[in-house]
Specification:
The protein is mainly α and 548 residues long. Helix content is 55%, strand content 5%. It is built from 22 helices and 6 strands. The strands form 2 sheets. A 4-stranded mixed sheet has the order 3-4-6-5. A two-stranded antiparallel ribbon has the order 1-2. Helix 5 packs parallel to helix 18 and helix 17 runs antiparallel to helix 18. The longest helix is centred in the first third of the chain and has 31 residues.
Length: 548
């Protein structure tokens, strides 16, 4: 997995979102201010910032502009090497992605043994979606991994003995005042809450401090914390005492999560100065009330307001050749069906059945399936049908469930699981290093993904460098007309091209190069140009070259 991710990170140019995160991370490091990209909390960008700090780029403190221009300025206009800077920015996310693999292994091993842990780890390590997004300086895999870590710790709290409180009744609370948040392990211990619960709160807080979409997991994980405390009760303990401990466990989890979110903002600016670069929209109704009630810094709440404004925008989507405006509730399940290896789909289904039907595994079902279902349901209700990265938590949780199939004591189970895992490995290795446009064999493989999906499922701007190499090697000296969807700057990679949409069609002669996401959504002039051109080459399964 490390080889696949590093190879991919070295070869890919910046995707659409990455320059924003890298530029904001550099701003955090050098300016210590909260200004750009408020729609995503700071922690994930601070992780990226660890790599940016090692790269030590030149940063222009006088730059004024929006967050997109900030990233482009840092990468292409400040004397920095964009290849080197992007690689360093991606490395911390790669390391974090590998560490989450150890969580997958440990979780499955605790449920069904070492063989189950290894099977789950194989599915995780060869998941094309996890490799694709774990090798980018983005936030999707870190947020999903933190949620999985929190759930695993809550499971351990259920299975591990609780520390005995040193004194007093179960009603004594560790708060010195109504607004203090003492979140030490000793405070939790006085409530009879095992250390795994506040640690789970820290992991949940890390998820909330990385992506706001993880807020949907909060009530689920609080319920799981209470459930863990209930199952960990001592024999002979009164129901009332157990209920108090259950509520205390949920409260400690929530308080720890809130503390981590605040800490992530304080790490950027201890004075919490918030000067938004863009106007913050006003949110009315229940959404506005919910935002106002969030116990987070003002920058976080304003970021939520921006996210809600995004949800009101009429985005375009593309699914199975259909271009539409708005969102389809079944988009994510359909996209997962296309972009998940067939053997993995089979093992996911078998794992879900196993953990709900095998008696000794059934207690794990709420921990594995309910967070997945709730997060997926929340993502399905969103207005942005942009890719399976919005559901990248599914391969993490269901890899653990799939490993549990080996907990079925049947002679056929090890052979069947091994065969399906091998099928996944072969499918994943065959697509290397083109993981972003992966689709399984039933849908034609990576070369055909562009016919069914768009955006980060296929073409996220990652192949500008490969395009430069292809044009230089095969089409040197030819006139280039380029429609590129991405954040990279073509001229920085030696591509000299013009926009074919700005001149009469009769003047567009030579090579027409179009990003597949742009082609999928093409209308008007661009659609006419594509229809009257002959495709002659593809680059990275995400860019098509036409002859005119």
């Amino acid at each position: 997995m490390a080889v696949a991710m590093v190879t991919t990170a070295v070869q890919q140019t910046p995707t659409i979102d990455e320059p924003v995160y890298v530029g904001t991370a550099a701003e955090y490091l050098h300016e210590h201010r909260l200004r750009h990209n408020p729609e995503h909390p700071p922690l994930g960008k601070l992780v990226i910032g660890a790599g940016v700090a090692l790269a030590d780029p030149h940063v222009d403190p006088s730059f004024e502009g929006d967050q997109g221009a900030l990233g482009r300025h840092l990468l292409y206009e400040s004397g920095n090497d964009p290849w080197r800077l992007m690689l360093f920015a991606r490395l911390p996310v790669i390391v974090l992605t590998m560490l989450f693999g150890l969580i997958v292994f440990a979780f499955a091993r605790e449920l069904a043994g070492t063989a189950a842990g290894l099977a789950a780890l194989c599915l995780y390590a060869f998941s094309p979606d996890v490799i694709a997004h774990g090798s980018l300086a983005t936030l999707d895999v870190p947020a999903a991994g933190f949620v999985l870590t929190s759930v695993w710790l809550l499971w351990r709290a259920r299975r591990r003995p609780r520390p005995r409180p040193p004194f007093s009744s179960p009603f004594s609370l560790p708060f010195s005042g109504p607004f203090s948040l003492p979140l030490s392990l000793s405070s939790a211990a006085r409530l009879g809450v095992p250390p795994a619960v506040p640690l789970a709160g820290v992991a949940l807080g890390a998820a909330l401090a990385t992506k706001m979409s993880m807020l949907a997991a909060v009530p689920v994980l609080m319920a799981l914390a209470a459930l863990s405390m209930w199952w960990a009760r001592e024999s002979g303990e009164s129901r009332r005492r157990t209920l108090v401990r259950a509520f205390a466990g949920a409260g400690v989890l929530a308080l720890a999560a809130v503390a981590v979110v605040w800490a992530s903002y304080l790490m950027v600016d201890p004075r919490l100065r918030w000067t938004p670069e863009q106007p913050v929209p006003v949110v009315h109704g229940l959404r506005g009330v919910a935002v106002d009630l969030l116990p987070f810094p003002e920058a976080y709440r304003d970021g939520m307001r921006i996210q809600f404004a995004f949800e009101n925008h009429p985005w375009q989507g593309f699914l199975f050749g259909r271009l539409y405006t708005g969102s389809l509730w079944y988009y994510l399940p359909a996209a997962l069906l296309v972009k998940t290896p067939l053997g993995m789909l089979a093992l996911w289904a078998a794992g879900a059945v196993t953990v709900t039907s095998v008696r000794r595994l059934r207690p794990a079902a709420p921990y594995l399936l309910i967070p997945t279902a709730v997060l997926l349901g929340a993502a399905m209700l969103g207005s942005r049908d942009f890719g399976v990265r919005y559901a990248v938590f599914v391969p993490l949780f269901l890899a653990v469930a799939a490993g549990c199939v080996l907990g079925v004591r049947r002679r056929w189970a090890p052979v069947t699981v091994a065969a399906l895992v091998l099928f996944v490995v072969v499918s994943s290795v065959r697509t290397c290093p083109y993981y972003l446009p992966y689709s399984n064999e039933a849908f034609g493989g990576p070369a055909q993904t562009r016919l069914r999906l768009h955006d980060s499922n296929v073409d996220w701007g990652q192949d500008l460098g490969r395009l430069a190499d292809r044009l230089r090697d095969r089409y040197r000296g030819e006139r280039i007309w380029l429609v590129y969807k991405g954040s990279g700057v073509p001229s920085a990679y030696g591509i000299s091209a013009s926009d074919p949409r700005k001149v009469p069609a009769r003047e567009v002669r030579g090579l027409l190069v179009v990003s597949d996401s742009s082609a999928a959504k093409a209308t008007g002039r661009l659609a006419e140009l594509i229809d009257s051109s002959r495709p002659i080459d593809t680059v990275g399964h995400s860019i098509t070259i036409y002859r005119r």
